[in-house]
Amino acid sequence: AAAAAAEAAAAARREREPGKKRRERRSVVGTPDPSVPPSGASCSGCGAELHCRDGAAPGFVPAEKYRSLSEGPAGVAGLRGAVCQRCWLLAHYGRALRLRLPPEQHREVVSAALRSPPRHGRGPLLLYLLDVLELPDPVLPQLPALLGPDVPAAGLLVVGNKVDLLPADSRGHLGRLRQRVAAACAEAGLRGAPLVDVRLVSAKTGFGMEGLVSRLQRSWKCAGDVYLLGATNSGKSTLFNALLRSDYCKSRAPDAVDRATVSPWPGTTLNLLKFPIINPTCDRIFRRQERLKEEATKTEDELSSEEKKYLKHLKKQGYLVGRVGRTFQQLKSSSVIDFDPDMLSYSIDEDPRDSPQKHEEREEFTHNEVKDARWCFDTPGIIKENCVEQFILQVLNLLTDKEVKLVLPTNAIVPRTFILKPGMVLFLAALGRVDYLQGEKPAWFTVVASNLLPVHISTLSNADAFYKERAGQELLKVPMGGEERMKEFPPLVPQDITLKGVGPTEAVADIKLSSAGWVAVTAHKEEKLLLRAYTPKGTALVLRDPPLLPYISTIRGARIAGTAAYRTKKPPSLVENLKTTERR
Q1: Rounded to two decimals, what is the model's pTM?
Q2: Is residue 80 located within the same domain as residue 116?
Q3: Which of 73, 85, 76 minimizes the C-alpha distance to 43?
Q4: Measured between alpha carbons, how far is 33 from 393 in angstroms, rounded to an integer?
Q5: Are 320 and 469 part of one and the same domain?
Q6: Are residues 170 and 214 in the same domain?
Q7: Which helix (H) or strand (E) element contains residue 360?
Q8: Full domain range(s) for residue 53
Q9: Residue 294 carries which DSSP code?
Q10: In total, how many domains does the chain have?
């Protein structure tokens, strides 16, 4: 019913679009041809089988493009390295086509892969990725049931991703985050074997990636295959791409394996993608360690201009940055060396209509290279199972492309702190609301959410009228589209919360407003607060105790006169594996 309602709402929005925009939307979908059989080739971005039969099915390529690729001299092999229309639109325009793909199909692909007979006499290593911003992870408790007794897994390594988005609220904050991830594993019944380790990384900025590769090579070596698991939008495809550019894959893999499509839309990967794992021999381990030691002696001033430019770009995106290098690179046999593994692996950023010349130059693995290879697989994101969580997903799917980009943080989050008295209200866009109903003293409310989502302070007496007037308008930004948009958007529903303060510098709990972000509440010691928090109907409001960043309210500037807000402060970024320059 929820899916039908979502589709009906989307159809209604399309009908309200101007005629020109509707024609553009139809032209984007392209022309299907049901008479052409599927290709048997997979999209190099999401893993779906390429075809031109149905524009709403995964792997669709417009019939004109499909014929130009498959009817040439190479035949169906001409589709090698091509991407489906959905991946192409995601990569070029950030647009997501709606697909008829039931949640159970994602789970079936993952389940079938995990239950395949062990290769090389040993079960696979499961590398489970979770988004630290989403703790408690919605899928982690379902993992034991998903695996079941018949999954021959040899080990489980849990990786907390997106740590680059969170500021350091105190010394040792990463150790505390790691403890929170380990505690979530224990609560999910993953204590002890087969849990191998818990790591923290940023697949996007590279922080922690060299350490993860070393951990995999040191403990797992090349004993069996590795499967990347995780909830939708946890960053698995980004991690897959980062490992593809690291010492974990065979040296020629960036030339012969396409990168996975990366998008803020949940459920980008639709089937299995893979690359061959390099065998970490003693010689390779030694050479890799020598490279890491040499790089650790460099300062930022000693880097090349291109490396400095890239680091500057990453520092704008995250608080924690790492440099992922390559020890083993096979040079081309041409007289002029033109080797850039990053550029060679970016086939997703090219039009699927590759020229014949590009296909001829494309690297291919030989049978001997991969006949005994161990593989690293990127699997489809696990979609939340129960009906309430499925409706949460439908709410996310109701968001437009622009709204998704505003809601999901992609750059370092700058905390925003406000001091509220009883009778005051905090709005996070039109997606969440926190009322301070009762208390003796003012309290601090720190918003940890996308920097693009606006925060507005009101009073209890004006809050309802403010929301009715401003929701759907530019002031609150999300949702956008005016009164008509808000008619189809779920209303905000309340939940009362009682807290007791622990001190003016330490938050007592986080109020997590579904996937929009959270509000850390800090109050004087023993001060009792009565709050009322709102999220859209059908979405989850979580009280996270203890808070993820307990000292987050201390990351602030001076109070802005005449307002409830403090000036924001952005802590500096930290680059891993670089020698710091001493300042006098």
Answers
A1: 0.78
A2: no
A3: 85
A4: 31
A5: no
A6: yes
A7: helix 356-361
A8: 29-100
A9: H
A10: 3
